[in-house]
Amino acid sequence: MRRFEWRDRIERLDPESDFAEIYRISATHEFPWDYNQSLSFALFRTYAVPSIGRLLASTGEFTERVQKRYDDTGLLLDALVEHGFDSVQGRTAIRRVNRMHGSYDIADGDLLYVLSTFVVVPIHWIDELGWRVLTEAEKVAAANYYRELGRRLGMRDVPATHGEFAAYLDAYEAEHFAFDEGGRAVADATLALFATFPPNHRAPAALVTRFSYGLMDDPLRAAFHYPRISPLEQRVARGAVKLRSRVVRWLPPRLEPRFARQLPNIRSYPGGYDLSALGTFPRA
């Protein structure tokens, strides 16, 4: 395959009807590493909304069993990408997420915000740090993919375009980002987990955390009361990711898809897993 053959194949598809296929190609062939990193940071952003961070901290799941929660979230979303919304695995994953959400009192606005991060954060990440920018078809497909997920999760008033998702995210963060001890605890536990992922585990944890600060924007750092870092540190962190992307640009295209379940970061189920058993099961 030529280096841009996947991109050219995407351009021959219709993002209004083929959005799932476009998203799968983009996320598992073109940008598997970037999507994994950016979706991790997408979830991380949600902790800066006090109502979300406080709820996650209260369960203890995201501070005491953070690896399992990270894995379960990735595997449930991964099942939809790999098998499709209407597959047995897809329906099982959606039921699991709906039952978890239904066990807590979660505001509609918070649910829409989380969904918006899944659309907007990867677009921003890849356009700035990826080995090429996303095409408009990929952006439209991503919005349609998560709009469909939102519909199946029973969400109302889901944004229709990636521009509307971005506007919703920006407005919600401007209104709701604030410090909360629970959100900070979840964020700290997540950064500690990031430091254990390969190849991060080969570096001092404090250095990995500082590098993570460099990939955050000022409002996000401020919401967690994380220390200010210099523009030089930000350039170094972003420059390191961009350097990786320059190397990736010259590699041959990925012929086989790379799913989240295949990543070394997923470590809770070396013997396999049952989708219906993932996630939390709150006591009545």
Ordered list of secondary-structure elements with their pairings:
Layout: H1 5-11, H2 19-30, H3 32-46, H4 50-59, H5 61-64, H6 66-83, H7 88-102, H8 108-129, H9 136-152, H10 162-176, H11 181-194, H12 205-214, H13 218-223, H14 231-249
Can you walk through the features of this model?
With 284 residues, the protein is mostly helical. It has one domain (5-257). Helix content is 65%, strand content 0%. The chain is built from 14 helices and no strands. The chain has helices at residues 5-11, 19-30, 32-46, 50-59, 61-64, 66-83, 88-102, 108-129, 136-152, 162-176, 181-194, 205-214, 218-223, 231-249. α2 (19-30) packs across α3, α8 packs antiparallel against α9 and α8 packs across α10 (162-176). It is globular.
Properties at a glance:
284 residues, mainly alpha, 14 helices, 65% helix, globular
Our measurement of the CA-to-CA distance between the termini, rounded to an integer number of angstroms, reads: 53 Å
- Rg (CA only): 18 Å
Tell me the number of structural domains. 1
What summary fits the major beta sheet? Answer: none
Structural shape: globular
Average pLDDT level: 96
Structural class from helices and strands? mainly alpha
Please tally the helical runs, counting DSSP H or I stretches of 4 or more residues: 14
SS elements, strand count: 0
Helix-strand string: HHHHHHHHHHHHHH
- Beta content comes to under 5%
Helix content: 55-70%
Residue windows where pLDDT falls under 50 for at least 5 positions: none
